[in-house]
Amino acid sequence: MFLQREVTEKIGLFESLSLLEVECVFGCDDRCLLLGVDQSNIRYVQLNHEQAAVHAADGFARATGKPGVVLLSNAAGVTNAITGIATAYSDSVPLVLITGPLVAKPQIKEAFQDLDVLGITMPITKYSFKQKDWECLSEALQNALTIAEEGRPGPVLIEYAAGPLTNNQDRLLSYPRPRSHISKGQMEKSIESAAELIEAARKPVLFIGGGVISSGAANFLRGIVRQARIPVVSSLMGIGAMEAANPLYLGMLGMHGTFAANKAVHQCDLLISIGVRFSDRVTGKISGFSPKSKKIHVDVDPAEINKIIAVDLPIVSDAKEFLCELKGRLDYQQILRNVEIWTNEVIGWKRTVPRFDKSHSLLSPQTVIKKLCEYSAQDTIVVTDVGQHQIWTAHHYAFTTPRTLITSGGLGTMGYGLPAAIGAAAACPGKPVLCVSGDGSFQMNLQELIIAVRYQLPIKIAILNNGYLGMVRQWQELFYHGRYSSVKIGSPSFAKLAEAYGVPGYEARTEEEVERVIAEAFQHSGPALIEFDVIEEENVYPMVRPNHSNHQIILE
Fold it and tell me: What's the whole-model pTM score?
């Protein structure tokens, strides 16, 4: 009886998701194939580990802007997924996670696979709830999808309960939808005040974050920059909102930001911050952050405003709505007269990144990233893991469009890259996907190689193998007098490992070999892996020391 009930419910689930225009679902449970997914129009991508399944849904969501949907088995399936959920929550990624017991069971305390799912996931979800009424299935899923992407996006978890619900187990249908408390008149006044500050500024800088990309505001931003010629800096999550080749884009701000970006923000008299949360990796020492400027902060989440950096003009608004309104209010001729000297000075500052030149290898990681960019199509989606290779990619890959850099920002999740690349490839069939990883990060979820083979996804994997946990080693070298501890790691031959999984594997140790193997690997229609033997003790520069201001930058 229980099995028959599960079959009915699962079919209803997939049918409901299909009616809600969900195109793709991720998970690890192969029973979904037996329980009705093949009777719907939904593509089901089955991974090997729940963490990887959530990362894949995360990659899907970042590539499309639509919520990623994940099916999780109960108990250990949920705990395995925690890292993926927390990663999405940190970076405001819309997900819908559906879990519950495999079969109906009586309510017995400490029963097999009994777990307080809501209690465990509450701190890392935008909303979570228990649901039992299958007659309200479609309505519950519709609301979950809406909540996940409205306002500040985030993960929503649905636990389908097998027993009766208690009074404190809320139903989604009663979810309050808080909207901005700013009235239309207040918004008009805020836009007018912002326009006045921008028109009066002599040294303005636009600081853009992930909120600009998630709201779809990049074109409005570019239009304002084109007419006003205000310099732009970005957080890691804001990369792609501005074209890397635009001389007004000064690069990434913060601990590993460019000289030009950090100097501009330190010297500006007006900082217009849109869709950012002022992470410590961006601000450096709080008291030294942009000390001469008035500050405008635009964010859809009122909790982020004045949380870390005190601002002069707080505006609770979606980035796209704000920029759309602002664009028609500005006196561009006035702005151009005021900022001409500043803009000409700033665009002459160094945006290039120096490199550590005390090396004994023939191949630098910076060269690898530049060559990967050179051989990649313009619409390639680049997914990274976390570490030195992530920052080198941010600096040396020329991103031109939003949603083409997918990476873990707030949580810094190693092992994110490969499964997120699988999700991005599932989201955009036929689009090239490049996964840049390190020898440490890649070994955390390498089992998902077989999934790329199973679905013949066009993912090209570039592993920068330096034999270290490179970012930790760099901190130990610079700040702990070179006393290395637990950072030298061992690795298999990744090229041979790829071959064992059925993926063509390549190796490169010199610049001459780099061009040849990239060209060969990129010709394959399915997955391919390239292992680059790079300088062991190469450092990421620039770098700002912990508890220092961004203008106190180490260049080499």
Answer: 0.91
